[in-house]
């Protein structure tokens, strides 16, 4: 599905999504069967930015490294919960983005938690190779602004 | 310093801050000597939201628990780097917020990292008691949207 088309449409997210799927056909789902919409009880608890997003922190299972921070809309969260493949919403490209779909550096999602405010998600994942587009293991590896005191 | 006054003023952040400090007097600094402004080389690397903020993830040193996610403006980051007391910017109250100043649940900052995009900080902290306003240890303790597979 062209997520841009979904974003441009109007109406409740689940109806927009269904309409876009109907219009675009199954190929737009990139081979994965994602049906339905985000659980309404979850959707009701989200506190989104004005552009409909919540923040998502990805943490490696076991080592507990903080890998990266990205954004999700309802559709990205629904796909993440139902496929266990971390799926984000790219604010710059204005479309859904399955982590690692082109690089192979996917995130298998073990657990998803919502914070007390309803505006941030914590994903516990298994990261394949580096999470960062630079090739680093995490997006926080390269730049230390304040060093530990030893 | 009434951070609201700072936000309402105009001009470069460091000049606004100095003007506000001058106007408000040392008492406004709540007893801590914070001088100067955010290092210009750091400021130049930040990619802020339209309202001038970057995202900040607080992680407990040692256990590596993700404690909470909040926001910082340049002033909050400057104070965090210079005092090692985690200081955030409250979007709802539109003012700086020294974590734990009223609750005592402070965060001593060991390390601060900036991510590859320049829009997210990772703080490695020692959290006193619970990080969450609900009393929980972390803001992610209460709500599991997707459980681990065992």
Automatic annotation (TrEMBL), chains A, B:
Cofactor info, note text: Binds 1 zinc ion per subunit.
Reaction equations catalysed: 1-(5-phospho-beta-D-ribosyl)-ATP + H2O = 1-(5-phospho-beta-D-ribosyl)-5'-AMP + diphosphate + H(+); 1-(5-phospho-beta-D-ribosyl)-5'-AMP + H2O = 1-(5-phospho-beta-D-ribosyl)-5-[(5-phospho-beta-D-ribosylamino)methylideneamino]imidazole-4-carboxamide
GO molecular function: magnesium ion binding; phosphoribosyl-AMP cyclohydrolase activity; phosphoribosyl-ATP diphosphatase activity; zinc ion binding
Residues annotated as domain Phosphoribosyl-AMP cyclohydrolase: 68-140
EC number: 3.5.4.19
UniProt main location, coarse: cytoplasm
Similarity field: In the C-terminal section; belongs to the PRA-PH family.
NCBIfam families, sorted: PRK00051.1
Record's protein name: Phosphoribosyl-AMP cyclohydrolase
Organism: Saccharothrix espanaensis (strain ATCC 51144 / DSM 44229 / JCM 9112 / NBRC 15066 / NRRL 15764)
């Amino acid at each position: 599905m062209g997520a841009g088309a979904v974003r441009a449409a109007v109406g409740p997210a689940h109806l927009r999504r269904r309409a876009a799927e109907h219009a675009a056909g199954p190929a737009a789902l990139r081979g994965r069967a994602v049906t339905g919409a985000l659980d309404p009880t979850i959707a009701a608890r989200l506190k989104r930015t004005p552009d409909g997003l919540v923040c998502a922190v990805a943490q490696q299972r076991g080592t507990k490294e903080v890998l990266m921070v990205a954004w999700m809309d309802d559709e990205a969260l629904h796909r993440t919960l139902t496929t266990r493949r971390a799926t984000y919403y790219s604010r710059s490209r204005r479309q859904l983005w399955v982590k690692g779909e082109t690089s192979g550096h996917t995130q298998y999602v073990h657990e998803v938690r919502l914070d007390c405010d309803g505006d941030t998600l914590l994903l516990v994942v298994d990261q394949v190779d580096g999470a960062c587009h630079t090739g680093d293991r995490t997006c926080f590896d390269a730049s230390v602004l304040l060093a530990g005191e030893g």
